Amino acid sequence: NWPSFVQLKEVGPRDGLQNEKQFISTEDKIAWIDMLSNTGVREIEYSSFVNPKWIPALADAKEVGKRIKRNPNVLYSALVPNMKGLENALEAGIDGASVFMSASETHNQKNINKAIDDTYPILKEVIKEAKQEGKKVTGYVSTVFDCPYEGPISPEEVIRVCEQLMEYGVDDISLGDTIGSAVPSQVELLLNTILKRMPSERIFMHFHDTRGMAIANIMTSLQYGINRFDTSIGGLGGCPYAPGAAGNVATNDVLYLLHGLGVTTDIQDKRIQDASIFIQNKLGKKLPSRSFAYVEST
Ligand code: HMG
Ligand code: MG
Description:
Helices cover 43% and strands 16% of the residues.
């Protein structure tokens, strides 16, 4: 039993590129995001307004935001860590702001240079301001299953962070398997706990595919009624502060699963393939997606 419609948020231009050593030119990013805008996807996380010293691959976020062609059917969001990031994002143009923090203390510290308790007041202000500006706000919670530094994280630790972000006014929560370590029983444990406290309509699942478990975890989430997922075209991506973690689950592979199950997404496979070929050629290396590799070799 699974939902008949599933919404994918394309995070390739943000999570996909943030960890790439090779700088994709601003022109190429814009051309690629414009291609993604015409795939049928309803939300694109187009860049990140963090400190460019930390994430040089996305240092051109403002220019990208100003120059992409906006499709009125697409919600354009970006990652925002603090008020400075929000100001820049508003100037560049966003429909949605994605704030982020971790359920694990050590990952939070490594990723955003702050303790969890010191992060709350910063995000509270960002969320309030973004809502006042009429933006949709997503709260990413990282390391919801395992932390690369601390090991397993309990559902209670995750829920504590989610409830705080919900109280500040986020519209959605995205639960991140940052290092791609979870297996379906961990997904069941977390969803069994979390769905007692918040509705499934407010949850996105964000799986990295380090160990090839993401599709199994998505299937499990679908059976819990979850119908929103973050995916990255071709399987690009990774968190620079999660050593060894691979990219997000590939949009291509998730579409193969969903369309095979008869689930509607409104996304056109062929256009996703074209956008995959475009970025693969720019990066000059094979993308990790399995279904994309299959299409190419036939
Ligand atoms: P900080 O160094 O603690 O910040 O950084 P600060 O407030 O002390 O400021 C230090 C300097 O940074 C100052 O510049 C600020 O102006 C500048 P200086 O005076 O030294 O020249 N600065 C900024 N510049 C541009 N834009 C900004 C900004 N903020 C401060 N927004 C900060 C704190 C969070 C900014 C920093 O730690 C940072 O940028 N971290 C990057 C974290 C990141 O991007 N990680 C990857 C994304 S998260 C992820 O991938 C997980 C996710 O996918 C879900 C999952 O998979 O689990 C979302
Ligand atoms: Mg991620």
